[in-house]
Amino acid sequence: MRNLPKVNGTKDVVAYVTGNFEDRNFRPEAQIAESWERSLLKHGLDPKSPQPVDILTDYEIQQQLQRHEDYLNIARNGLTGLSKRVADAGFSVLLTDEAGLALDARLPSADKKTWQDAGLLVGSTWSESEAGTNGIGTCLVEKESMIIHQHEHFFSNHSQLSCSVTPIFDPLGNLKGCLNASCLGATGTKESQFLTLQMIIMYGRMIENSYFRQTYRSQITMHVKETNNFADLAQEQLLAINERGIIIGANRSAFAEYESLLPRGEQLLGLKIEDIVGLTVDQLLTKSNGGSTSIRHESPKLLDEIEIALRIPANKITSSIITPSVIKEPSATSSPKTNKHKHPTLEKLAGEDPGVLRNVQQIRHVINKDIPILITGETGTGKEAFARAIHDASDKKDGPFIALNCAAIPESLIESELFGYRSGSFTGANRKGMKGKLEQANGGTIFLDEIGDMPAQLQTRLLRALAEREIMPLGATSPIGLDIQVISATHQDLMQHIKDKLFREDFYYRLNGMSLKLPPLRARDDKDFIIDCILDSELGGSEDVQFAPQAREILHEYHWPGNIRQLANVLRYALAVSKDKYVTIDDLPIEVRAAKDLYKKEEIITETEEKPMGLSDFVNDEEGKRLIEALRHYKWNITHVSEELNICRSTVYRKMKKYNIVQPNNIY
After folding, report:
1. pTM for this model (two decimals)
2. Are residues 169 and 96 part of one domain?
3. Binning pLDDT at 50, 70 and 90, where does residue 73 land?
């Protein structure tokens, strides 16, 4: 391919691209021209050498269909409904994943081979990096609804297509794929496809809303609209909240409506519902008569009257929500303590942290798909608790959950612990033999904790066992098949271990089908929620426990090197020494109190000695430079900055004050 000159600016791009496509005799819009520029300069494609659309093998297609099973099941009704309305007009309909792979295709009954020859079939890949400018690939890059009409396609062999496409997002705002309707040899102009595009957008929103309702079918959900607006399906706002009134999910219309009204850097997920609609969860339940009637209320964000309709699943009416008097209390025969020691769910463990909630949503998609999960995080962040919750949420929940700490077993014994042995295998062995952890976990879940400490030679054998799904215990005469979910965890940097030749790279990728990173406790904003969960699940309930304001402040500000495990021990100690379950500063362990004293001293020094620095001082200070770089990188998300710099949130704010950094910072 010839060398392509560098171009700068929209005008240059349009002029350059138009020159390269002058045989098409039209001037592209800026968005199309930018896509052509990416195709030429970023992806290295040559418009003079069109390539056929890449098609996956049957085996690869089956793998992808299994991976996206939930998404397909939800989208299928919308896909069928759309196809019925456009097939007679000569349109095919495709549903793709986030990479542009066609997962489902509905083709007009007449001349299906022509459509398939054009690449419109299941298993075709339409990413912009491979197929150049096209409806599916460019829509996924731009994340916008659009029409790519005939000669706007990068490759000339696609110029007979006119494609109307809309992206599809999940309830956490993640791109899931797109919905596409294409016709061959359209005689009209691009404008003639606008009505088709509106229909595609409507069905795309229907799929998204179905996805939302399916995802949060066991949570309280809300339908919000302005009372002076006609109901529009494409603009329907849906929100999901947990028992504490924290927003845990939304559809695209809600994201678009509210995030534009929020301060810079603040996200919709994780906010309290009262900050958005002006009512707490208890007030919503009371005013709606337990969800049976809609509510009209002045919204503090929209500055207009809104109508709110609640949907409350049956399991929530008698759950841990503070139930208003209009909702019936549980019957006297039901005991409120029956589930006291039940292991918390994934959503309960995620609490109100938006990042963890997103990860949990992704985990929900891969459960029962035979995909290994790797959990990473500092010691004490709850890796085993999440592993058990994943097991409880899977089809293998009735099978065993077997945990093995790879760091706590002598290297000489770990192989027999994993694979077991049969009677008489070696001197000193148990006469009856021993089942290894893998065999014990058959039909359930094996949790390999501290996998980073597994000896290198054993990694090879375990890799083979996981790949072949069978083991051969020492002394056995035939292999034993394995049907297990594999979850592993570590607090170590496995990529560094790989560089240091301490961990096999192929073993890492065998374990890491999906990764879940747990944040340290100091970086989480939902410490009150976590405290209540620990009290409820381990210490007999939070109803009668009270904290002095200074004691709670210490629990918030302490840096928690031992994370949630350390917090649980601190709460257990505090309740043991407190009087009448009223926790004061004196009831906290001395090391936690001492940290507060150091914090006070630092505050005094800051107030008396550290004056705000001017620009000249700031530029020459390495700490200030690092802080502003982190703030910029994470778009002023204080939680992410505190995690990156390994300091608590309050320290971030103090340092911002010290260096006179004000958000938004337009100077630097």
Report:
1. 0.55
2. yes
3. confident
